[in-house]
Amino acid sequence: MMAMNSLNLKDTLVTCNIIMHEILTSLLNVNSRLDSIALLRTQNHIENTYFNDIPYENSDSCNDRILKNIYSSIKESKSGQMVATYYDYENGRIFQIIHPKITFKPTCDFSIKVYRQDCNSHFINL
Predict the structure, then answer these.
(1) Is residue 26 part of a domain?
(2) Other residues' Cβ atoms within 10 Å of the Cβ of residue 99
(3) Which of 78, 80, 77 is nearest to 33 (CA)?
(4) Please, are residues 62 and 77 in contact by the beta-carbon 8 Å criterion?
(5) CB of 110 within 8 A of CB of 17?
């Protein structure tokens, strides 16, 4: 945000959206922008992660958290604010760029929400 201020790149909402899209796709290597329908499909792309810093959780609590994240993301996008949602398949994260309600002279004011979508659980083979 400071860099955008110092480079005078906060003049319009269009410029802001272009820059945020480039940051997410180039620097963070986020693959896709999602709408509400595609966001629901991310539930099928959940991967288990092993040997990392993410706490262990059972599969039920993991599924509950994932569904809660998806539905709160959809609710956020229907709140009357301008919301752009991106999904990072590799790292299992949903990024939301949330602009406050659009005014007569929109500027680049935004907040970012990140939802963790991966699980750290163990499979039991019988």
Answers:
(1) yes
(2) 19
(3) 77
(4) no
(5) no
On the question of pLDDT at 44 being above 60, the answer is no
Residue 28 CA to residue 90 CA, distance in Å, equals: 10
Q: For the segment 11-30, what is each residue's pLDDT rounded down to a tens digit?
A: 676 777 787 778 888 877 77
- Domains in the chain: how many in total? 1
Range of the structural domain that residue 97 is part of: 2-116
Taking the C-alpha atoms of 82, 88, 93 and 96 in order, what is their torsion angle to the nearest 10 degrees? -10
**H or E stretch covering 93:** strand 93-99
Q: Is residue 20 part of a domain?
A: yes
Q: Report the distance separating Cα 119 and Cα 126, nearest Å.
A: 21
Task: Write out pLDDT tens, residues 61-99.
Answer: 777 777 787 777 777 666 667 777 887 777 778 888 887
Structure tokens at 52: 């990392």
